[in-house]
């Protein structure tokens, strides 16, 4: 999906295979169990939700977990074509567009695509504090010793290690801070797994911040 050919195949699969099948399936289900609201997630679900909403005259809310489209993409016709599914999905005239505030500037992209600001809800993901329970034998001092970070500040990034999560920006940020200030005394810890793991390790080595 991250090469032009892969992107074209992905968009073609969505429009000519996935969406017709999902539209039929969701429409049949909705006729049997009429919804009061339709909620479509990301480009895969947003277009289907909007079409079903139009056919059944039902309000639609779409939700994006961040965006892949950048401001530079919007000024390049080829990139707009390659990202057609997401561009169209963001522009849908739905009752509300929710975009996760994950640093990809989805609200700015939506406004540039002509979405009225009063329809855009740019929210950060939350979490349940009840899940933030440490084991009884948790010893932060021991953890710091094990990780060899005693006396140093710690910044933590937790995500899947995939291109669009932009973990590379955290590594580049630390490299720049280290270069700007010799007294900079902090470490960046990255918790996660994914296909970009080795690439990120190589980047840290390349920027001399692998330690």
The assigned structural class equals alpha/beta
Indicate the overall shape: elongated
How many strands?
A: 6
Mean pLDDT: 91
β content, as a range?
5-15%
Note poorly predicted spans: none
How do the helices and strands follow one another from N- to C-terminus? HEHEHHHEHEHEHEH
Could you give a short description of this structure?
Helix content is 48%, strand content 14%. The chain has 9 helices and 6 strands, in the order H-E-H-E-H-H-H-E-H-E-H-E-H-E-H.
Give a quick set of tags describing it.
6 strands, 4-stranded parallel beta sheet, 211 residues, alpha/beta, two-stranded parallel ribbon, 9 helices
Give an overview in words.
β1, α2 (42-56) and β2 (60-64) form a beta-alpha-beta unit. The longest helix is centred in the N-terminal third of the chain and has 29 residues, at 4-32. This protein has 211 residues and is of the alpha/beta class. The radius of gyration is 22 Å and the shape is elongated. It is 48% helix and 14% strand.
């Amino acid at each position: 999906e991250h090469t032009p050919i892969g992107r074209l195949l992905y968009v073609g699969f969505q429009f000519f295979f996935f969406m017709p099948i999902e539209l039929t399936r969701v429409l049949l289900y909705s006729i049997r169990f009429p919804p009061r609201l339709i909620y479509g997630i990301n480009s895969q679900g947003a277009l289907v939700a909007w079409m079903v909403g139009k056919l059944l005259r039902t309000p639609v809310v779409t939700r994006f977990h961040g965006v892949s489209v950048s401001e530079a993409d919007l000024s390049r016709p080829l990139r707009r074509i390659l990202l057609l599914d997401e561009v169209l999905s963001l522009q849908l005239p739905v009752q509300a567009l929710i975009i996760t505030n994950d640093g990809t500037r989805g609200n700015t992209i939506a406004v540039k695509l002509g979405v009225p600001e009063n329809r855009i809800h740019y929210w950060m993901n939350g979490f349940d504090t009840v899940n933030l329970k440490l084991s009884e034998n948790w010893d932060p001092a021991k953890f710091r010793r094990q990780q060899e970070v005693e006396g140093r500040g710690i910044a933590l990034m937790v995500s899947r290690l995939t291109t669009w999560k932009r973990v590379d920006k955290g590594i580049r940020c630390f490299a720049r801070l280290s270069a700007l200030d010799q007294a900079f005394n902090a470490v960046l810890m990255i918790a996660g797994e994914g296909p970009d793991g080795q690439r990120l390790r190589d980047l840290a080595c390349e920027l001399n911040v692998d330690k």
